[in-house]
TrEMBL record:
Protein's UniProt name: 8-oxo-dGTP diphosphatase
Entry similarity comment: Belongs to the Nudix hydrolase family.
Residues in Nudix hydrolase domain copies: 27-152
Keyword Phosphoprotein part of the UniProt annotation: no
Species whose genome carries this gene: Brachymonas denitrificans DSM 15123
InterPro entries, sorted: MutT-like, Nudix_hydrolase, NUDIX_hydrolase-like_dom_sf, NUDIX_hydrolase_CS, NUDIX_hydrolase_dom
PROSITE patterns assigned to the protein according to its UniProt record, in alphabetical order: NUDIX, NUDIX_BOX
Catalytic activity: 8-oxo-dGTP + H2O = 8-oxo-dGMP + diphosphate + H(+); 8-oxo-GTP + H2O = 8-oxo-GMP + diphosphate + H(+)
Gene Ontology molecular-function annotations: 8-oxo-7,8-dihydrodeoxyguanosine triphosphate pyrophosphatase activity; 8-oxo-7,8-dihydroguanosine triphosphate pyrophosphatase activity; 8-oxo-dGDP phosphatase activity; 8-oxo-GDP phosphatase activity; metal ion binding
Keywords linked to the UniProt accession: DNA damage, DNA repair, DNA replication, Hydrolase, Magnesium, Metal-binding, Mutator protein
Membrane-spanning segments: none
The UniProt record lists the keyword Hydrolase: yes
A biological process from GO: DNA repair
Enzyme Commission (EC) number: 3.6.1.55
Amino acid sequence: MKHTAERPLVADGDRPRADVAKGAPRKLVQVAVGVLLQPDGHFLLTSRPEGKVYAGYWEFPGGKLEEGESVEEALRRELYEEIGVTIGAAHPWRDTVVDYPHALVQLHFCKVTEWAGELHMHEGQQFSWQQLPVQVEPVLPGTVPVLEWLEQERGGVPLGG
Ligand SMILES: Nc1nc2c([nH]c(=O)n2[C@@H]2O[C@H](COP(=O)(O)OP(=O)(O)OP(=O)(O)O)[C@@H](O)[C@H]2O)c(=O)[nH]1
């Protein structure tokens, strides 16, 4: 199912939604996320740093768009700041919306096959080149559908069905 602002993927639905102001519409936070792919199909996962929500959970690297930025610009900035690489083209791939206790986020996933520079985790994260099925856990709720899309693309049976 495609998750939109009207029908988001709900994460930890039993917890209160901290950012919901009475009567006000909930802000949809825009996030650019990179799926860095090696020629042999390995992809990069990073762990969320201490001090951020869902610290220690594994995700694809990325972050929030700043005022006036495009998805590609935000992704280029975030990946340089967070993991020290300069990316080539960011190819828009899939979008999804996730309703977390801390925020409602729209995730713009881009595939990236070219980058320059050595990986340096500037926020104390861990990183791992993974293939399916992934060997790290826990995985961030918003990352789970991405693994399913990757599985579908390689022609396997989708997880959970
Ligand atoms: N980077 C990233 N964020 C994701 C993924 N999946 C997902 O649901 N998210 C959510 O998207 C939001 C991204 O925020 P972030 O905290 O990583 O971004 P940031 O570095 O710009 O944040 P900050 O500068 O406020 O600390 C978080 O709510 C995070 O839970 C993913 O695969 N990668």
